[in-house]
Every structure is written in structure tokens, then in C-alpha cells.
Prior knowledge:
The chain is mostly helical. It has one domain (about 10-105): Multidrug-efflux Transporter Regulator, Chain: A, Domain 2 (Orthogonal Bundle). Helix content is about 45%, strand content about 5%. A two-stranded antiparallel sheet has the order 1-2. α1 packs across α2, α1 (about 10-20) packs across α3 (about 50-65) and α3 (about 50-65) crosses α4. Residues about 85-90 and about 95-108 have low confidence and may be disordered.
Amino acid sequence: xxxxxxxxxxxxxxxxxxxxxxxxxxxxxxxxxxxxxxxxxxxxxxxxxxxxxxxxxxxxxxxxxxxxxxxxxxxxxxxxxxxxxxxxxxxxxxxxxxxxxxxxxxxx
Length: 108
């Protein structure tokens, strides 16, 4: 049996990595914005790294750019968001974009 090399995350772990609630990830799935795989008979949602990155892009568009959910898919197709940098895990701001903090770290 081939050993799996790519990690998959449950909805609770994925939501903490992205910085949203599990209900928000489920809502984005209902809107067709992310597509987690379903595992076995329990149909548990499993998110890959690509799903996590896409969810971070969706979060950036919705929270920072105030894009409506119905317009997010079009924005992602147009490439309006590239890879959104995130903060390290122990900084207290889960999944927040790095840009504002980076500006504070640069000496003037």
C-alpha cells in the first residue's frame, strides 16, 4: 500500500490555519468556492494545502477587500489574488496577512 505524503486536515484544523470558523469553511464549500475531499463512510471533510491556500485567498478577498461571496469566484479566476502571506503560528493573530506587520519590522 502506498504511503500518503501530502497532509490533509480536518475542518477544525483547517479553520484555525486559515483564521476563520469551521462554519465559514462549510459555507464557502456550499457556495462552491472550495472543494475538500470526503473521507470514507463518515464523509468527513479533509482539506489539502491547496485548499488551505485557496481559503486564505478567499478570506483576504472577503475581509480585506470587501468582495461579496458571489463575486469571489470571478476574482479568483481573474487572478486578483496571488499567494497571500500569513503570519507565523505563535503571533496571536491567526491566519492574518503578513503585510501590515512586515512594515513595522523594517527599520527606517
